[in-house]
Amino acid sequence: MVRGDELGDAPSMSEKPARSPVRKSPRRSSAVTLDTVRELALALPGVEEGLSYGTPAFRVGKKLLARLHEDGETLVLKVDLLVRDSLLVADPDTFFITDHYQDYPYMLVRLATVRREPLSGLLETAWRSLAPKRLLASRKEGA
Fold first, then answer.
1. Nearest CA-CA partner of 97 in 113, 117, 74
2. Pairing of the two strands 55-60 and 63-68
3. Calpha distance 34→38 (Å, rounded)
4. Mean pLDDT, the chain, as a whole number?
5. By CB neighbour count within 10 A (0-12 exposed, 13-18 middle, 19+ buried), where does 79 fall?
6. Percent of the chain residues topping a pLDDT of 90
7. Is the predicted pLDDT of residue 4 greater than 90, yes or no?
8. In degrees rounded to 5, what are phi and psi of residue 48?
9. d(CA 13, CA 47)
10. What is the DSSP secondary structure assignment for residue 69, as one 8-state letter?
């Protein structure tokens, strides 16, 4: 007589059940890289890529929008201090500061944990705080 588990109907006690295809959380599956940051930043009018402290940086005119931190895994991002305080509390695994940034309107963003959509919004908000009126107008016309 043939048992059900020999037909493949049910796993035996020694077999591991087959894993169902489970989607990973968006936080892990859509990892942000420097290329993602570059794509998002350079899509904003007037943003140019250069270097700051020897790492890739994005500026609006001469004003720093964002740059890759020296560790290669973190983004230094321009941000309003009140927004920064909220983000530090809401998601400390992604957003943080060091003593160096305490008094400056910048925060550190872990690329491994930030999602594309929130980063895009933060970059645009930072861009709006730095861009001259003519660039802001061009964004409104194009949006």
1. 74
2. antiparallel
3. 6
4. 84
5. buried
6. 71
7. no
8. -125, 150
9. 60
10. -
**pLDDT score recorded for residue 143:** 54
Contacts 24+ apart (CB under 8 A), 92-95: none
Give the separation between CA 53 and CA 123, rounded to whole angstroms: 20
For residue 126, give the nearest of 75, 92, 89, 90 by alpha carbon.
75
pLDDT in tens, 110-125: 999 999 999 999 999 9
3-state secondary structure (DSSP) of residue 109: strand
DSSP string, 25-57: PHHHHT---HHHHHHHHHTSTTEEEEEETTEEE
Helix or strand (DSSP H, E) at 76: strand 74-78
Q: Is the pLDDT of residue 106 over 60?
A: yes
Q: How many CB atoms lie within 10 A of CB 7?
A: 8
Asked whether 123 and 36 are in contact (CB, 8 A), the reply is: no
